[in-house]
């Protein structure tokens, strides 16, 4: 079996969160989806598990951080700069927050950060490895 990552995120409203991620281009895997959780697929290797707060609490007794806090920033590579921009626009259109952090353009790398409905931060980035500085 190839290496995969399943990012688990607590969400307040499962159906709204599923719609948000679908708007960004994630696909739902119904095999791992029920009324308490949804598996949203970015690629063959990257999956996001959206878990209701009750389901989340079956995995840990640690408190769910408030929407205004930040615990982790998850970075996803994009094919080009236009896709980075498009995903931020889609996030804002579907209830998230675009540019929750300042956008960064280093020439060889371009990124913008968005927040989903529950405040989870995603860094969408594009990088041209051939243009990356050598020092």
TrEMBL record:
VOC domain sequence ranges: 3-127
Source organism, top-level taxon: Bacteria
Annotated signal sequence range: none
SUPFAM superfamilies listed in its UniProt record: Glyoxalase/Bleomycin resistance protein/Dihydroxybiphenyl dioxygenase (SSF54593)
Short name of any one Pfam family annotated for the protein: Ble-like_N
Entries under InterPro entries matching the protein: Glyas_Bleomycin-R_OHBP_Dase, Glyoxy/Ble-like_N, VOC_core
Protein name in the entry: Glyoxalase-like domain protein
Source organism of the structure: Stieleria varia
């Amino acid at each position: 079996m190839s290496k995969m990552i399943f990012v688990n995120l607590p969400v307040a409203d499962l159906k709204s969160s599923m719609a948000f991620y679908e708007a960004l281009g994630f696909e739902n895997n119904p095999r791992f989806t029920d009324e308490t959780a949804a598996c949203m697929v970015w690629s063959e290797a990257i999956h996001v598990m959206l878990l209701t707060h009750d389901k989340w609490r079956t995995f840990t007794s640690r408190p769910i951080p408030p929407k205004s806090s930040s615990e982790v920033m998850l970075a996803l590579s994009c094919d080009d700069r236009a896709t980075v921009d498009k995903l931020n626009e889609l996030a804002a259109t579907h209830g998230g927050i675009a540019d929750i952090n300042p956008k960064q353009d280093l020439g060889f790398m371009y990124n913008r950060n968005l927040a989903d409905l529950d405040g989870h931060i995603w860094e969408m980035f594009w990088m041209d490895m051939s243009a990356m500085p050598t020092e």
